[in-house]
Amino acid sequence: MFHGDWVTIRTTATRWEAELMQQILLEHEIAVRLVDWGASAYLGMGSLTALQVQVHQEWAARLLTSPVEEDESSDESFKAET
User: If both were cysteines, with which of 25, 26, 44, 59 could 30 make a disulfide (CB 3.0 to 4.6 Å apart)?
Assistant: First the structure.
């Protein structure tokens, strides 16, 4: 396994959101780690959580965790039919 540098691909305000993205990446065999930023993580309060992957897997991870783009032309044809 490659043990290179890690890069942050996303930060979230809630840990559960980062854990959900972590599960998606693990299913695709992408090494991932979560890093809690700030003291509030240790006090039981919400805090920023960084989702990190190894540099050589960065773009695959970004694609898997990016929002789905909707096709506007199909939306317009659907509206015209209704």
Answer: 25
Q: State the chain's maximal CA–CA distance in angstroms.
A: 54
SS3 8: strand
pLDDT of residue 48: 86
**Which positions ≥6 away from 21 have C-beta within 8 Å?**
10, 12, 32, 51, 65
- How confident is the prediction for the chain on average, in pLDDT? 82
Angle at 21 between CA 6 and CA 12, to 5 degrees: 75
Token duo for residue 14: 């809630």
Predicted local confidence at residue 1, as pLDDT: 46
